[in-house]
Amino acid sequence: MTLQSPQPPEQSREAAEAGLRLLAGLGRVRTETLLPAAPDELRLADPVRMYTVGPAGPLADAEPVAWRYLVRHGSDAVALAETVRDASGEHVFSQLGYGPFVAGTAAALAAASGHPGDAEVRLLHIPAVHLIAVWLHAEAADALIPAAPAPPGTEAGRTYPADELLGLVAQSAPPALAPDDDRGGG
To answer: Where are the beta strands (DSSP E) in 131-171?
Structure first.
């Protein structure tokens, strides 16, 4: 099997490294996994382009929104660093995450390495159902591997045909607000 992992633009990697160094150097990162690490012991690894789509949307509608990197201390994944494009199109550091999706993303990426066939490795985020999944994008068929914590009714680390997983999460998605509903955020 051949997994292709497109490399991020240099500006994205530089922004992620700068953001990580700044936060770690200022002592702003105070989590159990990051406390033992000196700032110069942290490194970016496994860059993956992240896409987002609504819970009922087909993968063809997924939009690229960020580059996400595992932050490693030794061989351990201890955080996720993310860059996005700002209004001028420049890649900028957006966040450092250190919740349960860190280990879940690392495990899902490891599970992807055993997938047969050729595929491009991506991440898929469906915010409405709190799903992060490794997306193995292939010409023949797409597959998704949910990262823990996975939404109810799905199994983290299991490889699903994309249509199957999207069908499962669509069932658990909250109803969409009507465009004229003033309870929405936009």
So the answer is: 131-137, 143-146, 160-161
